[in-house]
Amino acid sequence: MNFYEDFRDNHSNQKNMRSPWAFFLVGFAGVIMGAILLLLIFIGGGWLFNGFSPFSPPRNEEETNQDQNLESQEEERLPLPPREHQNTEVVNAVERVASAVVGVSNYRDTPSPQGYSRREQGTGSGVVVEPGGIIITNHHVITGADTVKVIFQDHEVIEAEVIGKDPETDLAVLEIETDRNLDYAKFTDEERLFPGETAIAIGNPLGLAFQQTVTVGVVSATERQVRIPGSEYNYTFLQTDAAINEGNSGGPLVNIRGEIIGINSAKVLDPRVEGIGFAIPGTTVERVTRDIMDHGYVVRPHLGVLIMDYSEVTGIATESGVYVEEVEPGSPADEAGIRSGDVIVKLSGKEINYYAQLFDALLNYYPGDNVDISVMRDDAKETFHVTLGEAPEGW
Fold first, then answer.
1. pLDDT tens digits for 196-236?
2. Which CATH superfamily, name and number, covers 91-175?
3. Pair 355, 308: CB distance under 8 Å
4. Which of 56, 264, 285, 320 is the most buried (most CB within 10 A)?
5. Catalytic: 11?
6. Predicted TM-score of the model (pTM)
């Protein structure tokens, strides 16, 4: 007998020995276990998939829709981004420099029945550039003022002394005495600016009611020739599309690092154009400020020529160079050999395309400095070695 036959015979005998009660008990136990299993499934989630359980009252369609709407609203009500996500480059730049930007008010003493009354004639902007209380603004902001007052971000008002002004560049330097810890702005150390760089203007357009207004744009162009009213000189300006309005004058134009790249000065008032404002370049501002603080005025080198743009002589806008109309006898230009009719095209390696660039270039030097001036004469280029003199009073 093999294993299979033995197992079959034993299994057959056991099967024959089972009674009906055994089948009943096994079947009853199976029913009980199945009922318990179904109950656990219903409680654990089967009916809860539809939003209710067997132990809660049935819910109508309207209540179910309300719950779904609430869930949708919760999904849409996202938390605000953390504070650091709002710290953009522009925000950071403004935070670095804003506390150094001040309002500047021009007061004049006017006759009145009681004698004289002090009245505010206008407001502009300014920027603290040294912790000792040195403030830069525009000359036209403080012109004719009997008293100049500086207004800080926290509305504290301090009377300022005008330590110097330069109508030719439309700049003025103020000084205040205060015990407060002054924040100040720094000039950029970049040698060049490029069109498209971020430009941020901060100031008080339309007076102190709009104090600390921030406008943002780009450097639209550099070395724009702009004549300052009442000035004998032309200097180059930065052009920007950052909004510059009345009251912004004297405030800083800063880069993305919060460094001063210029002092806001003017805008084009023409209904045909929009977004053309001008700022005095930081290099010019630094030189003028340094001279005023050291000497009380700007020490300008003297060349001794009467000039105009060569394009005005030829009537061709694309012509470049500066035409020498007249040479002052005995002047540095005369002694060096420059003559009337020459066209200046270069000064110590810098190309000169129009006369604002010539004034800019000369502002890098002082009386006694030596420069090489290249001119076109009779269709040939000649270079002259010039020792600069000091501009006489009134120049």
1. 999 999 999 887 788 889 999 999 999 998 776 666 667 89
2. Trypsin-like serine proteases (2.40.10.10)
3. yes
4. 264
5. no
6. 0.75
